[in-house]
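Notes continue from the previous slide.

Worked example: a multi-chain complex. Inputs as given:
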Amino acid sequence: MNVSRRFFITLTGAAAVAWESVLAGSPEEAPNYKLTDHWWAMLIDVDKCIGCGNCVRACSVENNVPEGFFRTWVERYQVDDEHMADPIVDSPNGAINGFPQRPPGTGLTGNGVKEFFVPKLCNHCVDSPCTQVCPVGATFTTPDGVVLVDEKYCLGCRYCVQACPYGCRFIHPEKHVAQKCTLCYHRITKGLTTACCEACPTGSRQLADLKNPKDPIHEFMKKHSVQVLKPQMATGAKAFYANLDGSVR
Amino acid sequence: MNRFKDAGHLVRVVGVFLVGVALFLCVRAWFVPKSFGEYGHYRGDSIKEVAALPIVHAGHETCETCHSDVLEVKKAGKHATVNCEACHGPQAKHAEDPGSVKPVLPDTSVLCARCHEANSAKPKWFPTVATAEHSMGMPCKTCHTPHNPKIGDDAAKGEKK
């Protein structure tokens, strides 16, 4: 066969590109799921949280979260009249085993002491600071409003970890890439709810699709006052908190 | 005098420039994945990769297709809104292969206390007990049926404790 040098060089180039796409494969698409039909958020009713840690356990099993790291966690607040600006906050091991009763005589003892639990997770911000600082396009907001990390692209530079005002990101100790709550993207695209919502016994957490007019969140928002964390940062957070105390940061 | 007699230099410069551009485009096509920029400044395929991860919690709808008897008992009691996997743990493997993967029955003396152990930070509406005084280490299911915990409730009758 007579192959010219020019033809050979062109051919090897083309073959290499083709081989690359063979190696990468094309991941399966979820049937009947349209990215543009959804806008995901989460509704958290602080009054319903009992601090059992079911969400933390479910999340860590569902997403294979390394030990000692958390994609969701629960905080216990203790506030009194004098300490609105600096409440006592603890979260023993992310509350993966719940909360032990505070030993008597410890903590705040002033007037109007109140205690409550606050579940935390990625707020899936619309204008997320974490995606804006990524130098390689490894983290992004999907067209359906979920902030994800591309583990194949992430360099592990930690810009996003320090950019997140809510402390929701960490570097995986073995993979050395940024990880965070995916809002159980592998579940919600299949019509299931997130693992934390599935495991929450009191319905304190509810997955919400803001583009679905039948979603109960619209009715809830109409009748209740709902807040986001750190609204002054204008991140467009989509973790909506009902019955949130003003001392929560 | 021929005005264009040295034009060959220019042609060569333009030639080098064009080769440079072509080389850049080739290298770029090689390094930038096909789906990059599909939706924005990231790899579009990575959305599909995250979505393709395996599920671990089956979801209560899946449980209820087989265990509809438990659903009936649960519906009548206070635990109506508590999903199966909140207590029984992740069961996607059991749902896929119910024959060989059998879930372990949780120990009620530990399980129930996770939620119902008294703690001053728990909301006031939520029923709690100090288990040390309330049951003295006995498993809760000695008296309560977990799926419908009210003692003496008719709906729980007949269900195995």
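Summary box: Chain B touches chain A at residues 26, 29-30, 33-34, 36, 39-43, 45-57, 59-60, 81-83, 85-87, 89-90, 114-115, 117-123, 125-126 (CB under 8 Å). Residues 7-31 of chain B form the longest helix (25 residues).
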